[in-house]
Specification:
Length: 201
Amino acid sequence: MTTTNHRTVVIFDTEYTSWEGSVQRGWSEPWEHRELVQLAAVRTVETAAGLEVVDALELIVQPQVNREVSDYFVALTGLDRERIAAEGISFQQALEAFTRFGHAGRLCSYGDDMLILEENCRLYDCADPGLRNRFCNLHAAVTGRGIDVTQYSSGTLFQHFGLSLDKNRAHDAVSDVQSLLASMNAMNLGFDDLQCGSDHG
């Protein structure tokens, strides 16, 4: 199903290369890059019952600088090297697919996942598609509901609301997006609650 409704909300999540200690180091080693490996997204529209999914996307990307993901990454995300080798596409292909998928409305993630796409554009010398002005960091809306965002990841936020999700695994982008969607509906977050880069007033 294709929707061009300008009130569309696209919720997305990314997983990227990491190693033991990367978070603590801030990926500061010269060989460390946050190369995109998995991107998941759902396109939603507002209904009386909340945000309703009209389309979904999952992309697996083959890293190019550090082509083999670490054991740490595999254990964290559940994405194994065999699947990445079999399904992985280039970052450029993934960026084009996501840009088409998120062609309208607002693009939301829990934290600044748009920065990962921008870093990868610079790393691989790809043209930035200019999605930042439609990007919304959900941290602001969640904090506005009195929730401490430092206590939850995108994949665990649903637990704050006492929800249960089938086959949930934190740090799998598909599961993380489902967690965010369920959480946004639990908070009754809609299009007008999401302030993006180009919003004024």
